[in-house]
Amino acid sequence: MTFMTDRRHPSPHVVTWELTRACALHCRHCRAEALRHRDPRELSLDAIQQVLEDLRRFAHRPIMVFTGGDPLERPDLPAIQRAAVDRGFHTAMAPSVTPRLTPEAIREWAERGIGSVSLSLDGASAAVHDAFRGQPGTFDATLLAALAIREAGMKLQINSSVGPHTAGELEAMGNLVKRLGVSSWEVFFVIPTGRARRSEQLSAKSIEDALCWLAAYRSRAPFRVTTVGAPQFRRVLHEMGYSVPEGPTVREAQGFMFISHTGEVFPSGYLPVSAGTVPASSAVELYQESPLFQALRNSDRLAGRCGTCAYARTCGGSRARAYAVAGDWAAEDPGCSSAVGA
Ligand code: SF4
Question: In the sheet that 14-18 helps form, which strands lie side by side, from edge to edge?
Answer without folding.
Answer: 224-228, 184-189, 155-162, 116-120, 91-93, 63-67, 14-18, 256-259, 264-266, 276-277
